[in-house]
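Q: Predict the bound structure with thiamine diphosphate.
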Amino acid sequence: MKPWHQQSVKKGRPSCEGWGYKMNAQNLDALSAYFIAEVSDVQETHTLSVIVDNEPGVLARVIGLFSGRGYNIDSLSVSETEHERHLSRITIVTTGTPQIIEQIRHQLDRLVPVHRVRDLTVAALRFKQDKPLERELALVKVAGAGEKRLEALRLSEAFKATVIDATTEHFVFEITGRSNKIEQFIDIMRPLGLVEVSRTGVAALNRGPEGLSSNAQ
Amino acid sequence: MEREMTGAEMVLQAFRDQEVKHVFGYPGGAVLPIYDELIQQDDIAHILVRHEQGAGHAAEGYARSTGKPGVVLVTSGPGATNMVTALTDAMLDSIPLVCITGQVPTNLVGSDAFQECDTVGITRPCTKHNWLVKRIEDLPRILHEAFYVAKSGRPGPVVVDIPKDVQFATGTYAGPSTSHVQHKSYNPPTKGDMTAIRAAVQLMATAQRPVLYTGGGVINSGPLASQLLRELVEMTGFPVTSTLMGLGAYPASGPEWLGMLGMHGTYEANMAMHDCDVMVCIGARFDDRITGKLDAFSPNSKKIHIDVDPSSINKIVHVDIPVVGDVAHVLEDMVRIWRASSFKPRAEVKNWKKQIDQWRARNCLAYRNSDDIIMPQYALQRLGEAIKGKDVYISTEVGQHQMWAAQFLGFEAPNRWLTSGGFGTMGYGMPAAIGAQVAHPDSLCINIAGDASILMNIQEMSTAVQHGLSPKTFILNNSYMGMVRQWQQLLHGNRLSHSYTDSLPDFVKLAEAYGAKGIRVTKPHELDDAIQEMIETPGPVLFDCCVAQLANCFPMIPSGKPHNEMLLPDEASDEAVASAISKEGKALV
Ligand SMILES: Cc1ncc(C[n+]2csc(CCOP(=O)(O)OP(=O)(O)O)c2C)c(N)n1
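A: Predicted complex:
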């Protein structure tokens, strides 16, 4: 077996078992129940929420960590979410083996301006939920005339996209949803005169009443 | 205590409040206000180096030998970039450094001004944290925070970049007590989880073939950690090995000492690691120089890992019982629990030790001595004899001499061994010895050097002479970059591409040129007297010890091989050496 960072890629569904060690070692029934090394080379996609001080350079630290250590960023979004405390929430979608994702979480936690890191995907599974709530917004510009134009408008309604700008030659649609829905919408618009797209990246929360700042992972 | 003062005064006041006694530095335009304050006070001594990298490594030697953070002051631009190697070195070996850099005035930042560089951008990946101070109001808090971050948790280097206008500006200074002690987002762990610790102790009590694998974390945790480690060993009778960084935490003369482990570690240490059933990793990080071939690393053991940095756990090797906490705190709990439970090591441990004795009997550090030529190992053994029982700090450069020093000089106490482990920085040893000498003016500070490495920061001889410091440099002069040559022999058909140094300087004359003493020795029988002369010389010495040119450093785990396939000196025929590394192994470093 190769070391995990050289292992080949298999796509799989995320799990909260296996490599993720528990620091509080709750279920360490002293002599019998050690964490059995379930070394997995399956690549999973996880969504992480990172609460950081909104100070200069903080995003560079986070991005530099990913590029410097060779981690993937599939999507990233950031904005100040608590103005009085100057806290921002960074939402990162990343792909890697469970061990790598565990590493990413700890490496992020090590950054001085990082307050909290939560793997929303693992948290959702722990709460017996399928996945975290994830939404993305996209602005999609489509230009054309005649049948194609009508078709674009019809489809946008099916996708519950709204028209936020239009001339006789174009539409700009606003669409919100999970990334794969947006992906699908863009694919459909491509032959209908797609001009350009702007996407926000994923915003995500766990379901249920608890929040990240009030509840430890 | 709150007072109005300039930014430059604040830097000095923060140093005082943080109990800084020495600063290593080099002036330049962007730090002149701070230098102007330095000259007008006597509390803090400034050691003027000859190159900023030297300041960085000197501060590392100072930090490593005292347990206190090393402090550096350099100017913007080239001053800051010259620090990058030392910062990275400190990052990889978890050495606390506080580096103050000057910066161009805030209104010029971003304009490509003279001697401007993006210091926080450049040093972001090689510091634990860094700050650009844009407002005088933030300066006192950031200065105190910088010391806190550098020292706490897993220690490391930090940079505070201060634009010149902020140094001139006036503001209100507050001491560390009134600044927040608890950081809002940075709270390193100290105590380990008791459930995990209890499970770890119980596992240890069931071990038949245990080994303790200790590292630099034990040293960083402070002298108490070394003391507790010794207690734990005494109680359990478990054999102990250590990484390069952890030497001295357990004494080399101790009954359970296996010697260093890893690529150039002892046969007994590596075999014990490979065959053990319970491994207790204490403040070490499963570095690739330690593990060798990963999937063959200690295949049948349950692993306990104590580390203050959660990101070290499961990073390279999956462990069964992680304990996140400061080594001293965790060991204290372990010792207490073991004692309270009246655990006894299992009877099988006796057989395990017999096995270890058999490995020990292989005498893996043996070498063929000569009456004619000085063998490097012999030179170090004679040096070791001469300094036995003395108050000594040893630093090294990087190469074969470093490994031989680790193998042959027995370390009895923590903080006495200063070497560049994680980064392997040639040029580390001379300034590190200077830093240790600044902290311990009456101790003997010796840099074990190679002829190539020593030239990387030789200019610091001038620093030593100016400041009345007397570090001794013991050069194992083989005219080669010995470690490179050894690898070329092993990996590249003995084609010695650019690893021989023609035209080396005459080190005796060089020493004299700096106003220091030079000693040259070429014959084994001259060694003892010459070493004595070196030790007795009051000032700095360059000791040019001309050794066998083509000696190889064994034992060695060739790249890509597991621990139980070491190359031992008596097996290392030319042919065995030439074919020791497989094709895949060659791709590894
Ligand atoms: C700054 C730096 N450059 C290059 C290297 C690669 N390197 C490792 S050991 C070595 C040779 C060291 O030679 P010397 O100082 O003479 O020591 P010896 O191995 O002969 O004891 C080199 C070039 C390094 N470690 N650091």
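A: Chain B has three domains: 3-179, 194-360, 376-546.
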